[in-house]
Structures are given as C-alpha cells and as structure tokens.
Amino acid sequence: MKFEDLLLDIGGFGRFQISILLLLCFPRINLPMHFLLHNFLAATPSHHCAIPHQEAFVNFTTEELLLISIPREPDGTFRSCEMFSQPQFYLLVNSSLQPENVSIIEHCKHGWVYDHSQFASTITTQWDLVCEQRGLNQATATFFFVGVTVGAVIFGYLSDRYGRKALLLLSLLCSLVFGMLSAASTSYTMLAATRTLTGVALSGISLIVLPLGMEWVDVQHRTLSGILTSIFWSIGNMLLAMVAYLVRDWRWLLVAVTAPCLLSIVCLWWVPESARWLIANGKVKQAHRHLLRCARVNGRKDFTISTEALRRMTTEKSGHSYSYLSLFRTPVLRKISLCSGAVWFGVAFSYYGMSMNLTGFGLNMYLSQFVFGIIEIPAKLIMYVLVNQVGRRQSQAWTLILSGLCIGANIIIPKSFTSLRSVVAVMGKGFSEAAFTAVFLYTSELYPTVLRQSGMGYTSFVARLGGALAPLVLLLDSVWPSLPEVTYCGVAVCCGSMAFLLPETLHVRLPEGIEDVE
C-alpha cells in the first residue's frame, strides 16, 4: 500500500487538510514582507551635498543657496554627489551659465541633506549609503539573499533528517529574534549581519511550509492546495505596501514586518508533523496517531489501520542516511536536479529583478508594490487552470520565457510611452509570479519523500543565488542603462527553456523513494 491509497481512506482533502493549509498561510504571509522589504528599508530619497557655513547666507532663499553651491544636470536638477568648492554668485544673475573651470566641482565633503517628505528615515539616510557608498545600499539585499541561500542548504537537509514541524518552529523563532535585532542595529555592519541571519532563518519557512501542507493532500487536490497557499504570498506582498505606507521609519518598519512571526508560532501548535515523513523515517507510532486524528476530523470514524501495516509502507530502510549528493547519484535524479536548479535560478533572478525596480514602473513606489502584489492573484488562478490542462512542464517553461520577453520588450518601447511600458511591466510581473507559483509546486512533485526537502533545499539554494545577484545587476546601469534589463531577459529565456527537459508530473503520484523516480 502506498501513502496515496491511505489518503483515500482517511480523506485526502477534508477539514483536516484545509485547517493545516490555513494555519500554514500565516508564516507564508510573513515571507514577502521581508523578501521585498529592501525596496522601502533601503529607499534612497532625493539628496544633495550638505552646504557648509549656511549662517553666512541667511538672506538667501533655499533655491538661491542651492544655485550657487550645487552644480546642475543638463535637465536642470541639482546633482546628488557633487558641489562647488566655492559659492558661484554669478549664477544668481544668469543661472543658465555653466562653470568654465570644472576644477571647482568636488565630491561632497560635509555629508548630505535628504528629502524627508516621503521617508522619515531609511538605512540610506541613517548611514549615508549614497554616491560612492551606493554599492553598500544594494549589497544589503544581497547579504539578505546570501543568508537565504545558506539557510536553504541548512534547513533543506535538517528538515529531511529531523522533521518538517520542528525545523519550521526553529525557523520562526530565529526569524523573530534576528528581525528584532536588525531593528535595533547601531551600525551598518550590525544591520548587514542581522539581515543575513534573518535570511538564513526565513529560508526555513520558505522551504518547509509548502511541502508540509502538500504531503497531507491527495493527488487530485495537490495543485489547488499549492495555488491557494501561494496566494498568501501575494497578500503579504500587498500588506507590505500598506505597512510601508503607514510606517515611514526603517526601524519601526522592521518591527512591524517581524512581529507577525509570533502569530505564526502560535498557529504552528495545531499543525501536525508530515505523516509521509514520519512513515518514511520509521516513526510509525506518531504517524498512526496523526492519521487517526485526520480520519476523525474528516468524518471517517470507521477508519482503522495497525502500526504494523504502516511499518510495511516504509519505502526505504529506517535510519538510512541521505545527503545532497543523493540528488546526483542516479541518472534521472541527476537530470532533474540540474534542470530544476537552472529553472529556479531564472525564476528568482527575473522575479526579484523586477520586484526591486519599483521606481521604474511609472507610479509611486507604494502603489507599484500594491499593483505588483495584486496582479499576482489572477496570475496564480490562471496558473491553476494551466498546470491542470496544459501540464506542469509546458506551463513552467512558457511563463518564464514570456516573463523574460516582457522585460526585453520594455527595452525597445520608448520611455515616452509610459502607459504601454507600465502595462508590459505588469504583464511581465504576472508571468514571473506564475512561473514562481509553478516552480514550487512542480519541484515538490519531482523529488521523492525521502529527498523532497533536500531537493527543495538545493533548488532554493540556487534560486537564492539568483535573488542575491538580482539587486547587484541594477548597478550595471552605469555601464549601459539597458544592461540590467538585457541580463534579466536573457537569463529568464535561457532558464525557461531548460524546463522542457524535465518530466511531466500531472496526475502522477508523489514518489516515496528513489526507485519510484528512477
């Protein structure tokens, strides 16, 4: 007897499974509020060099003081990173004149003055992460995703070895602690370290929530449960826009997005361990208790099964040790691991590339964040139809390829066509989210139970490499303004094509052991 047959007897999608999925939605909402927090945490408001000895110019208006102290760009705006070494009073007579001697222009020496009309405080204004220090601003997001990358390896392996629920609880507790420490940071170094550790902790939530819910659901409702769970990522996306709009100080914003971890920890009390994992690891007494509870809640009170019957269901020897090398030892698993890794990299690289470029959307950043969140919901619902009708493989490949093509299209469309560029950007974000929705579902179906979390850990590791590189690619605009978009487009199209090499999993039972895959 396979576990899928057992689910038919106890109810594969009853009140028990629905309650688990709903309880696991709370930690799911937490994720985007941290993963996309960089847009607001490290926002760079308008700024210019601080002007020394302003008390000598008390009779000048602010505009006049800037005119004689700060050089201007060709479009008339004041430069952010340069100032005149001496006041240029002749510009008061004719502001259109250009300084003849460029040697009088120098880099800011006395700090910067920031526009606080939109943000009370960000880490950029806290530690002057502008001009020559601009790279450190983008590096904050990279440090976070490096943490997520490391966490994927750690939690992927440990949750296969010690169980889904225990590691999910550990992940939530660490996320709460490190998130609060980030808010209390007294230096940039401390912030970088605590954000990295927060990324490590949050990676466990990202990895475990979906498989823990999916392993209790039958084949027929697997897609539905995966899509419904992922919708709460989009809800978290929209909530982030609302919270960031209301909380304009970066420290309190970190507290606001971290505090919900407490609610998730409370909800986890009612979530059972995966019976699939318990049986696969020989813990049949615990599995037996959870299965009887599931049958009772689902109204299958006549269900009975002995612990001996469950023990016979164990597909591998209890206590057999697996590692990440097991993903590459057999030919079919090796092909799955290489191709799915490439797909995950492309999905994350293009998704975060678009999500972290809110200011290029044509709307204010709060509205952009909200629109990018709300467009994900119809994208997920359409994906539910596609993966069931067209299949996982075709849906995964084409959504990622089309996401890349939308990014490429905006390179060609003139910037004066603001509305068209906005529509194409929203479409690209929708395709990107559809690809992300599919890849979580698809990958969890490709790997066997004994290696599922290790497989998710490995692919998440590769994806977070993409997430870590995505914000740094934005710095390439100093080489060529369109180079970041060309990079995002090329990677998405190439990685999307790799999905065609993966096996189809539509209406296929979840594999229990390695031999089921081979």
UniProtKB/TrEMBL annotation:
Taxonomic superkingdom: Eukaryota
InterPro entries documented for this protein: MFS_dom (IPR020846), MFS_sugar_transport-like (IPR005828), MFS_trans_sf (IPR036259)
Subcellular location, record wording: Apical cell membrane; Basolateral cell membrane
Keyword Ribonucleoprotein applies: no
Catalysed reactions, as listed in the record: GDP(in) = GDP(out); 3',5'-cyclic AMP(in) = 3',5'-cyclic AMP(out); glutarate(in) = glutarate(out); GTP(in) = GTP(out)
GO terms, molecular function: organic anion transmembrane transporter activity; prostaglandin transmembrane transporter activity
Record's keyword terms, sorted: Cell membrane, Ion transport, Membrane, Transmembrane, Transmembrane helix, Transport
Protein family membership: Belongs to the major facilitator (TC 2.A.1) superfamily. Organic cation transporter (TC 2.A.1.19) family.
Predominant subcellular localization, coarse grouping: membrane
Gene name as annotated: Slc22a7
TM ranges: 139-159, 166-184, 190-212, 224-246, 252-271, 336-354, 366-386
Pfam families xrefs: Sugar_tr
GO biological process terms on file: monoatomic ion transport
Bilayer disposition of the protein: Multi-pass membrane protein
Record's protein name: Solute carrier family 22 member 7
